[in-house]
Amino acid sequence: MSEDGLTSGMDRAGAAPGVTTGDAPAATHGAGSGAPTGTAPGTATGTAPGVTTGAAPAGPAEAPPRFRRRGAVAPAAEEEPAMCFDRATLAYGDRVVWSELSLTVRPGEFLAVLGPNGSGKTSLLRALLGLAPLAGGQLDVLGHPPRRGDPAIGYVPQHAGFDRDVPLRGRDLVGLGVDGHRWGFGRLSRDGRRRVEAALEAVAAGPYADAPIGRLSGGEQQRLRIAQALVGEPALLLCDEPLASLDMRYQQEITELIGDWARQKRGTVVFVTHDVNPVLGYADRVVFVVNGRWAAGSTDEVLTTETMSGLYDAPVEVLRVRGRIVVVGEGSGAGFDIDEPHHFPEPVGTHP
Ligand SMILES: Nc1ncnc2c1ncn2[C@@H]1O[C@H](COP(=O)(O)OP(=O)(O)OP(=O)(O)O)[C@@H](O)[C@H]1O
Ligand SMILES: [Mg+2]
Fold this sequence. Notes:
It is a single chain. Helix content is 20%, strand content 20%. By secondary structure, the chain is an alpha/beta fold. It has a domain at 161-233. It has a 7-stranded mixed β-sheet with strand order 1-10-9-4-8-7-6, with helices on both faces. Helix 4 packs parallel to helix 5. The two termini are 32 Å apart. The structure holds adenosine-5'-triphosphate (ATP) and magnesium ion.
C-alpha cells in the first residue's frame, strides 16, 4: 500500500485489506444520506494511511496524496489540488451513476479513469466540465466549482468520427480551439496562428494539417483533436477514450503525446480508457468505476484480484503477464482470454 492509500466506494465486506468500504448506489442518493456501511477516516483497522471511506461523515474524505511526478519538485504546501471530489454523487434523475466519490488529484498528475461501458466515465468528465451537476457532495476544479466553458480546461470528447465530406481541414479544427475563436482559421490573430502551428507540431500533424479532416485515418484525426484541446494552453486536459479504435502502435503514440505534454507543461490529465496497459507508464493514479462503486489509488492498489472482485461483486482475477495487466472475469459469462488485450469484464449487475 502506498502512502497515497487506496480509497474506495464499495458496499460490501470482503474488500481488500486497507480498502474501506462505502455506500452502495442503491443505498444512498447523496452524501451523508442512507446508512453508511463504511468506516470513518482513521477508525478502520488495517487501513493504510490516507485511506478513507466512500461514505465518510464529514470533512474531505481523502488525505492529500503526495505529488509523485517523476523528476518534479514537490509542490508548495498551499498548492490547490487540480481537482477534488468530496463524497460526490452523480445521478440522472433517480439513476445514480456513481456515489460518494472522494478523490484528489494534484497539478501535474495523470489520472486514468477505468470501467466498463455505461459505468459513468464520461459522466465524470461532464461533472468536471460543469455539464452534469452533482446530486450530492462537492467538486472543485482548479480551485473553484466546475464552470462551463472554462478556458483552463482542454477537452477531447469521446470520438464521433467526422463525416468524410466535412469542409474542414485539420488546421481549421485546431484553430477552433484557440481561446474565444469560433470563426475559422482565416481570422485568427498572429498569436493564434502561432499557437495553431505549435499545437500541430506538438502532435506531429503538420504533414496532413491541410487535408480534409474526414479523409484522415482515425489516428490522424485523434492527433488533431488533441491539438485542438491543447491549443488553448490548458492547465487540465480531459481525454475521453482517446485510444478507442486505434491499433497498439497508435495507442502508444497518443498516450506518449499526452503524457509528455503533462510532464513538460506540468499539466494535469484525466484520461478515460478501457485498457489500462497503454497508460501504465504514465498513470499516477487510477479510478475504476463500475455498478455505482469505485476504487481509487495507484494502479497496483486498485487493479488487484481482491479489489476488482469487490467492485464487481463477483470473482475476478487480475493477472500480470509480461508487464501487462489482464483482468479475467466470469461476469460476462464468457470469461476472458488472457491474450485478449481488452481487459475488463462486463458489469455483473445493473445500475439501480
Ligand atoms: N444526459 C444523460 N441523461 C440520462 N442518462 C445519462 C446521460 N448521460 C449518460 N447517461 C447514462 O449514465 C450512464 C453512464 O453513462 P456514461 O456515458 O458516463 O458512461 P461511460 O462509462 O462513459 O460509458 P462508455 O464506456 O460506453 O462511454 C449510462 O447508463 C448512460 O446511459
Ligand atoms: Mg463514455
